[in-house]
Amino acid sequence: MELDTGVDDVLGMIDERMLDRDESVDPMALLAYYRRLLPFKSLYTWLNHDVGPTRNFTNREFAFTLQSDVYLRYQSFSGWDEWKKEVCRLNPSRFEIGPVYSAKPKDRKTLQKATFRPVAREVVFDIDMTDYDEIRTCCSDKHICRRCWKLIAVAVEVLDSTLREDFGYKHLLWVYSGRRGIHCWVSDSAALALPDEARKALVGWTEVIRGSANQAKKVSVGTHAPGAPRVLHPSLRRALGGDVLSSTGTDASTPASKGPLQRAFVEVILRDQNVFAEAPRWEVLLALLPPHEADAIARLQAKWAAGPRTSVQKWDDVLDVASKSAERTKGAWIATLEDIVLQYTYPRIDAEVSKRQNHLLKSPFVVHPSTGRVCVPLEVDDVQHFDPEHTAPTVAQLLRELNRHQGDDKALHTKSEWENTSLRPYVEQLDRFTSRILHEARDAKRTTTKHTLDF
Length: 455
Ligand SMILES: [Zn+2]
Description:
Strand content: 5-15%
Family: Belongs to the eukaryotic-type primase small subunit family.
Structural class: alpha+beta
Keywords: DNA replication, DNA-directed RNA polymerase, Metal-binding, Nucleotidyltransferase, Primosome, Transcription, Transferase, Zinc
Number of helices: 17
Protein name: DNA primase
GO molecular function, one term: DNA-directed RNA polymerase activity
CATH architecture of the largest domain: Alpha-Beta Complex
CATH superfamily of the largest domain: DNA primase, PRIM domain
Bound molecules: zinc ion
GO biological process, one term: DNA replication, synthesis of primer
Mean pLDDT: 89
Helix content: 40-55%
CATH topology of the largest domain: DNA primase, PRIM domain
CATH class of the largest domain: Alpha Beta
């Protein structure tokens, strides 16, 4: 079948028979989504940091994965309309956004190698459920539900506050990855300019969990000196809170003195996921306890093997042993318990994604090829209420919504078709995010001009 690749013939009923497939996305439905709904102009203004084209956009690399799985790198465009035309012509199953180069990526073959290099790029983070498989109990493999999504929500809360409070970044765009993870794009000008060495340092800072799946202890944030409490970096202390020896409480409330990680540990890890219910997982917990407490650990093992105890009960058993331990071992116990809380709740990021300017990352608003869900931006406060299975709009749903509005008065008077669909709040969110970046850029320019005039 010959595809009509024009971009202008956007109005018309969509054949809903192609929307009924459950799993994969029909190529014709995807093309209709690109033509009529994907907000190219909003994405362009966000990446460009200005209304008129700048190098932030024209020298930016885009990469397309075609339906045939052919991967096209180093695509670049003069503006959003050219970008959209090419996407509609190639109808890729997805596309990614890379760095801003010293020259236009499409011209790279005419340049000397040394003169073509990445010069700017948002700092990006990727948090994926793959790294939580040894923790969650509700789902496995490619599945995800509201309950395990809470682990992602805790990671977002902590990483967001670290990036804002410890690094001073303001413009953080969180985007659902379409299946079982989330991306963060840091769009501050200072972040864009960050060289790779600084990116590695920043990532090293946020990497508290290290080690492979078959290694019990994955956290090492320093030991305590005998007789003195352990000194943790203020950022970790803020996320953890104090009071790790106090009990989980029998009611549903968790004291405010416990930071977000301890609250998440009690509410999500112990109560909701019940991580330490079954044998291999509670054995990991025992392996993490201080080795010099062999007798106490053996008693816990015997008690837990004898009959079912919930994770809350097991953690209270551990706290009981810790509280009754000799005064000289209290410091070691506190450090151990804090490390366990960190290991089960601290953000697990895919560090390789963040370390280099030239890493490509899936664009917001593309469609996940196997779920049909749109990779929508999320406000940080909305992440915890987000339900990946039901909240994110799918291509089929959006195209049906377009059909429903076909020909009605309201639809004829809107500037963009996405305004008549559930995509609207997400596009408006990106536009608000971008306008804050644009305001800041304008203010910075005004200050520079004023200084020049004063001189
Ligand atoms: Zn789940």
